[in-house]
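2024-03-11 09:14:02 INFO worker-7 job=invfold-0412 stage=load source=structure_tokens
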């Protein structure tokens, strides 16, 4: 079961170009092979490569606890939530306790934009 899924990287930060791939973070019990096979169809529809990064909930929390450079960077960037939301992310990351995610997508939720210097 997927507990959380979000797009990060250039697509989420609206800095993509025509050749940009889609970086997808998936947290839960789904296996990479299960996810990858289903994403091939979406790649055909969108014309973009989709690069999933998959963690179990335990692996995700452990990596955050170890201050993984990759996850620390991803979590500071813009995100487009595909399944779950900010509360689920906080719960899985070891933040404040939240409700368990429901078995339905919560819709797309974009993190607030950060202003750049000089804009």
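2024-03-11 09:14:09 INFO worker-7 stage=emit residues=119
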């Amino acid at each position: 079961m997927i507990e959380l899924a979000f797009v990060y990287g250039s697509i989420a930060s609206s800095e993509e170009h025509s050749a940009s791939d889609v970086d997808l973070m998936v947290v839960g019990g789904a296996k990479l092979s299960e996810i990858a096979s289903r994403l091939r169809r979406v790649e055909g529809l969108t014309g973009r490569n989709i690069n999933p990064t998959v963690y179990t909930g335990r692996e995700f929390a452990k990596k955050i606890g170890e201050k993984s450079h990759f996850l620390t960077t991803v979590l500071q960037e813009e995100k487009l939530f595909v399944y779950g939301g900010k509360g689920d992310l906080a719960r899985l990351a070891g933040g404040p306790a939240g409700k368990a995610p429901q078995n339905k997508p919560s819709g797309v939720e974009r993190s607030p934009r950060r202003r750049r210097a000089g804009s």
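2024-03-11 09:14:09 INFO worker-7 stage=report msg="Strands lie at 2-8, 22-28, 50-55, 80-83."
2024-03-11 09:14:10 INFO worker-7 job finished
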